[in-house]
Amino acid sequence: MYEKIRKILKIAMAMEMTDRELYIKVGEKIGDEKISTLFASLAKEEEKHFKALFQKFRIHGGEPSFKPEVIAEELKSEKLHLDDRVSILKTCIAREKKGEQMYLDAADKIKNDIIHDFCLYLADQEKEHAKKLQELLSE
To answer: 35: which residues sit within 8 A by CB, 6+ positions away?
Structure first.
């Protein structure tokens, strides 16, 4: 009954953990204190999103031992365009927008009101992340 919800939540958890790893990886290497600080904050937010998603996953019959794998392919340097500050910020903005769209699409596919509303909430969170990154890019 909840298979579609669990499938969507698994994808979302993998995305959140991948973005968390990206922010940690890049934040440690960027050499820009403002960006490092924002990335540390975003990594913590992505971790919170993951935990909330995992809780929903468990409520809907997900295995307690499930551990999403970070999508390592998406963290490869050549794929991320991490050559300079502008490229890094643009890459992260694009990932946040992709996350926002994924949650909006998921909300359209889910009939469960609680998960639907939660997806809309997370879409808004991703939109806010992109806004913060865009503000840094504009400086």
So the answer is: 27, 85, 88, 89, 136
Burial of 23 (0-12, 13-18, 19+ CB in 10 A): buried
- Inter-residue contact 85 to 30 (CB < 8 Å): yes
25 burial via Cβ count (<10 Å: 0-12, 13-18, 19+): middle
Q: What's the residue count for the chain? A: 139
- What is the Cα–Cα distance from 14 to 22, expressed in whole angstroms? 12
Q: Rounded to an integer, what is the distance from CA 34 to the centroid of its chain?
A: 20
Rounded to two decimals, what is the model's pTM? 0.88
Architecture of domain 3-138: Up-down Bundle (1.20)
Q: Which residues of the chain have pLDDT under 70?
A: 1, 71-82
